[in-house]
Write a structure and sequence with these properties.
The complex is a heterodimer of chains A (107) and B (121). Chain A is mostly beta strands and 107 residues long. Chain A has no helices and 11 strands. Helix content of chain A is 0%, strand content 52%. The relative contact order of chain A is 0.34. Chain B is built from no helices and 11 strands. Classes of the chains: A mainly beta (107), B mainly beta (121).
Chain lengths: 107, 121
C-alpha cells in the first residue's frame, strides 16, 4: 500500500498568516492527489484535486502544488473558518490511502 | 444539487451485521462510482471500496474483504454497505462519497453526512 505521511500533525496560525501542510507519498503518485477539509462533526469537503486544481467554490487562498512523491497545501491568509482538519489522499494505486491529517487551529 | 443522504446511527451487538444506506440525488446515479470510507476517532480515514451502480461492479480494499459488501439499487438511487461479524474495531463513522474519474486523476467530490456505527453488547 502507498503510505501517505502528512506533516505537521497539528499547527496553530494567526489571522492572515500563510500556512503550509505537506504530504509525502511512499512512492510516486503522478499528481493523483487530493486535499480535503473536515470541520468538527462534519464530512470532508474537497479542496484540491490533481495536486493543484482548485475545486469549484473553494476560496482562492487555498492552493496545492507538488510532484512525484512530495505535495503541499497552502492557505494564503488564515481565516477563522479555516480551523479544521486537513487530509491528503492518493488515488494512484489501490487501495486508495489518506494521510493521518493535520489539525489547524487559529492562534 | 448533488446530495448524498445517509441512514441514521446504528447501535449493534458484537457478531451481528448492519446495513447502512446512501441515497443519491441531483445527478445520474448510474454514471458515477460510489465509495465508502471509514473514520475512527484518532485513526484518520480508510478507504473501503467502491461500487459502480451502472453495472454493479465493485472493488474492495483487501483489508475489508469479507467484512464489507457493497450493493446498489438503481430504482431508488441508493447505495448500501453491509458490515458483517461486527466487533468493537468496526465502531466508526462511515461515509459514502461520489467518485469522479478524470482519466489521469480521481477524487471524491461529494460526501454523505456519515453514519455512526457503535458495536456494543
Amino acid at each position: 500500500d502507498i503510505q501517505m505521511t502528512q506533516s505537521p500533525a497539528s499547527l496553530s496560525a494567526s489571522l492572515g498568516e500563510t500556512v503550509s501542510i505537506e504530504c509525502l507519498a511512499s512512492e510516486g503518485i503522478s499528481n493523483d492527489l487530493a486535499w480535503y477539509q473536515q470541520k468538527s462533526g462534519k464530512s470532508p469537503q474537497l479542496l484540491i484535486y490533481a495536486a493543484s486544481r482548485l475545486q469549484d467554490g473553494v476560496p482562492s487562498r487555498f492552493s496545492g502544488s507538488g510532484s512525484g512523491t512530495r505535495y503541499s497545501l497552502k492557505i494564503s491568509g488564515m481565516q477563522p473558518e479555516d480551523e479544521a482538519d486537513y487530509f491528503c489522499q492518493q488515488s494512484y494505486k489501490y487501495p486508495y490511502t489518506f494521510g493521518a491529517g493535520t489539525k489547524l487551529e487559529l492562534k | 444539487q448533488v446530495q448524498l443522504q445517509q441512514s441514521g446511527a446504528e447501535l449493534v451487538k458484537p457478531g451481528s451485521s448492519v446495513k447502512i444506506s446512501c441515497k443519491a440525488s441531483g445527478y445520474t446515479f448510474t454514471s458515477y462510482d460510489m465509495h465508502w470510507i471509514k473514520q475512527q476517532p484518532g485513526n484518520g480515514l480508510e478507504w473501503i471500496g467502491w461500487i459502480y451502480p451502472g453495472n454493479g461492479n465493485t472493488k474492495y480494499n483487501q483489508k475489508f474483504n469479507g467484512k464489507a459488501t457493497l450493493t446498489a439499487d438503481k430504482s431508488s438511487s441508493t447505495a448500501y454497505m453491509q458490515l458483517s461479524s461486527l466487533t468493537s474495531e468496526d465502531s466508526a463513522v462511515y461515509f459514502c462519497a461520489r467518485g469522479v474519474d478524470g482519466t489521469y486523476y480521481y477524487y471524491f467530490d461529494y460526501w454523505g453526512q456519515g453514519v455512526m456505527v457503535t458495536v456494543s453488547s
